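Reviewer 2 asked us to include a model.

Predict the structure of this chain.
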Amino acid sequence: MAKTANRRKPMLPERAQPEPCPEPSDREKSAIQDSKERLKNRRPRVSLKLAQKEGAGSTLEIRPRHSDGEGWGARIRDAFGTASLDFAESELGKIANALAPRNGSISQETANALLAVIDGARPRDEVEAMLVGQMAVTHAFALHLMGRAKRVEEIQQFDSAGNMAVKLLRTFTGQIEALAKLRRGGEQTVRVEHVHVYRGGQAVVGNVTAAGQPGGGGGEGNGGQPQATEHPRAIAFAPGSPVWSTDAERKSVPVSGREGKASLPDARRRKG
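Predicted model (structure tokens):
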């Protein structure tokens, strides 16, 4: 009989024990305490729970995460700036459908992240809620395309994904400006940072309105010319400052000391 070789079982490496984390430093402890205090004053965001509907295939149902369904519905309506629960659920469904993967449905974490964005923006009406929802989708698509541009290996795919990401980021900036314009009522605010007034000049800071004719014309007696001295907005010279004027009279050039007429001497010539 052939002798069977003694086979030893391979020695498995022992799992390294994770090193214990060090204690936070004093500065880190102070920062942690500051963050906790700020979180106490921060308004909690509304969230939801996605559940599978019975006998409805892959359809998901939106449910509250606590027992107070009426209070949760009020928070959902307030998050979308509306009194209609149908509008809030419809907008949330459209946003979730836009961000859902190709062969699946949106996750509960993604849905709650969208709700946090909308609730944090605090839209005042349905128009602002729709704009904030578009901003959330634009931001998500832009980051997705930037990640795709990083992973591709062909220049054409990189250019396609990168250019579309840049367009979406510009669109996101325009959406922020549109939201700000809606909230200030379409008015444009001009803020003066620095005003330089030199000696002899006057500056007017604030809203300046001209009385009289519409369009800036004034009803002054001088015809609204700002260079006239009686105009209220005319620039006046400070007392004692030099002003351009005509030259003072000067003495005439003195004449020669000899009086009368005298003949001029002949020119000197070389004698031949």
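Residues 46-183 form one domain. The CA atoms of residues 192 and 206 lie 9 Å apart. We have added this to the supplementary material.
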